[in-house]
């Protein structure tokens, strides 16, 4: 399991943001993902995404235990309602949003916007030049959220989400 000093510090930074700037939804708590969270992660992922496009058990296991990712989970009472997976790329000094999901019953409550703000704050704190993500062109709600947060299209991704399901690569420059 990768638990380098940098990864541990990034995990602490993400949790600190939650406590300093909690989302405006009552009865929420957060924690960093562990292997024991796999069933809940997979359940929410299947609920939010096409099953052919989701990460699946093997990839989530790697992201949690073998990668430099920080995966923050948001719970309402005891139910996982949102997650954010961030991957820092030291070579090009960028922070990538690998996955972001919010359960439909918690949409339009500001959680997606809060997760984007968290990503932007951590990108600045970790001295990254930019924040990156990929999004399905048909996901108009996510596109609108990202554009409002300052993301701009940097590339079109033909058939990225399957035949005739195009994606966009988006980028938001970090402001120190």
From TrEMBL:
<keyword id="KW-0687">Ribonucleoprotein</keyword>
<keyword id="KW-0689">Ribosomal protein</keyword>
<protein>
    <submittedName>
        <fullName>Ribosomal protein S18 acetylase RimI-like enzyme</fullName>
    </submittedName>
</protein>
<dbReference type="Pfam" id="PF00583">
    <property type="entry name" value="Acetyltransf_1"/>
</dbReference>
<dbReference type="GO" id="GO:0016747">
    <property type="term" value="F:acyltransferase activity, transferring groups other than amino-acyl groups"/>
</dbReference>
<feature type="domain" description="N-acetyltransferase">
    <location>
        <begin position="28"/>
        <end position="175"/>
    </location>
</feature>
<dbReference type="InterPro" id="IPR000182">
    <property type="entry name" value="GNAT_dom"/>
</dbReference>
<dbReference type="GO" id="GO:0005840">
    <property type="term" value="C:ribosome"/>
</dbReference>
<dbReference type="InterPro" id="IPR016181">
    <property type="entry name" value="Acyl_CoA_acyltransferase"/>
</dbReference>
